[in-house]
Amino acid sequence: MPPHGSNHPGEQRAHLSVGGLPYLLALPAALSAASSSFPLLLFLHGAGESGSNPQELLAEGATGTPTSLAKAHAPHLEQFIVASPQTDRGWDGQPGELVVKLLDELLEDKRLKIDAHRVYLSGVSMGGAGVWSVASAHPARFAAIVPVCGYGNAERVASALAASPARHTPKIFVWHGANDVVVPVGASDEVVAALKARGRTDVRYER
After folding, report:
1. Where are any strands of DSSP class E within 1-137?
2. What per-residue confidence (pLDDT) applies to 112?
């Protein structure tokens, strides 16, 4: 896989992390000339994009990377560095830890000019479950998390991300379609309710 420095701004290129996790990397067009830092979005795909060829994340109808739709639907994403890893084993356990190792690897690459205080984690369906899992294990690593149509162990998530003045926890924005027939909306309802019971009344939830 090519090094990060060979990425041309505005395109998505496939890479392989030191830990063996394949991923796509999209860089802002302004990166090379910028004197300021950029936010990083880590985006976790759903079960349908599982595999070991990250180019599959760009397939028609794929939920693996948000930057392919950025110009039409989310132009602000062009101001982000976006890393979209791929797994063939789900995001729990070792794959989730590889996501954090990928984060460390990206932060260490000074050519990318990533602002370590603006690291965001999002994902859809299985990826949404991965967001809950990774953020619960490493709550201090992210400025905000956005699980979309996800699911998780409500009590474990709430305990890890409970409100506490003594430690950093990310802002939380949850999205789930009320008519989702793959992952019932009750999965997010349960996690959000548990978080609020633990004092996270700041959770934003759209359903």
Report:
1. 12-16, 22-26, 38-44, 81-85, 114-124
2. 93
